[in-house]
Amino acid sequence: MNREKVFKIWLSSVVGIGYKSYFQLMEFFKKAEEIYRAKEIDIFKATGKKNLTEKIVEAQKLNPFEYVERLQKLKVSVYTLEEEEYPSILREIHNPPVVLYLKGRLNLKDKFSIAMVGSRKATYYGKQMAQKLSYDLSERGITVVSGLARGIDTYSHLGALKGRGSTIAVLGCGINVVYPTENKKLMEQIGEEGLLVSEYPLDYPPLSQNFPLRNRIISGLSQGVVVVEAGAKSGALITAQFALEQGREVFAVPGNVTSAYSAGTNDLIKQGAKIVTQVEDILEEFSFREDLKMVLTENEELFLTEDEKVVYEFIKEAPRDVEEISYILNMKMSKLNSILTSLMLKGLIDRLPGNKYTKKIF
Fold first, then answer.
1. Which residues are listed as membrane-spanning (predicted)?
2. I want to staple 172 with a disulfide (CB 3.0 to 4.6 A). Which of 6, 40, 214, 327 is the partner?
3. 292 domain residue, yes or no
């Protein structure tokens, strides 16, 4: 790691440094190391803020290289906003994080991702829908992004980990802070199989004001946001609002109209959010995206049984009549109908008039 990056990480770790103040200081001093060595009066000239100036001066007592050494021992990587590795989809949002702390095996850059969010106090229905949709997305190679909170977030991560894809957990605290404590094992699993992401420095506590800000990263890393279950005042609705501001697609799972737990999601649907009852509802909205087509093509056969693969390979070549499929593949009609239904539910084939089947064009 070069010296300048070390000092950029130091600067970003100062409490009160955000996108605007970071670049204000960098424009004035040109280099982060110069800020670390600057006099108090010069820092005040750059910021115009006494409180922030005092925090930077206090932070000058810290050794940036010791902090980076700690990061390395914890196997935590850091991307600064100026680096090529920083995800371009996040860089384009309003007020992007100046740095990202990362731990895991997943490559963050240019992944096709869908965010799954919802209430901490989730119902059985909400938990089941979160887990099923996330699993189905993951099986197709799509990365599921959520916030590791109780309820919907937890079940979204669990569903994604059971599939063949992966998951990203965006934290509202330092990347080495376990919150909530009951998700310790899940956090460790994501850190090994998926990716933990935070904009907060090591040891930073999970303050209540962190989480609404955290939500802009969840939506910012995703092509679309699915609100699975949310009450009228759920924080998940903040994520949906960020998604709209960032030009992302917003989806909602309908719930019982008499249930307060679904008041927020049902209201989103009334406002124009797309209804989601199965994973195909999400995929259809992105059918024009070449990057999604590539992901689906790479993963389309990974989650099929051997019989399903045989039938699918035959249908891929050209539209096929059901009797032709049965005759050529020497397969009983009862078994074939079951396989065709499964392939349709998995979003791989469509039924045409005349009892024919064809490969689904995403």
1. none
2. 214
3. no
- For 85-128, how does the pLDDT look when each residue is reduced to its tens digit (9 = 90+)? 999 999 999 999 999 999 998 777 767 899 999 999 999 999 99
Query: What's the whole-model pTM score?
Result: 0.81
Looking at the structure, tell me whether residues 135 and 16 fall in a common domain: no
d(CA 182, CA 109): 29
Token reading at 299? 């993963």
Sheet holding 349-352, edge to edge: 320-321, 356-359, 349-352
Rounded distance between C-alpha atoms, residue 7 and residue 30, angstroms: 12
d(CA 74, CA 174): 12
Domain hosting residue 48, numbered range: 1-67
SS3 255: coil
DSSP H/E element including 79: strand 77-80
- Give 270-336 as a DSSP string: HTTPEE-SSHHHHHHHTTT-HHHHHHHHHHTTTT--HHHHHHHHHHHHS-EEHHHHHHHTT--HHHH
Angstrom distance (rounded) from CA 285 to CA 283: 5
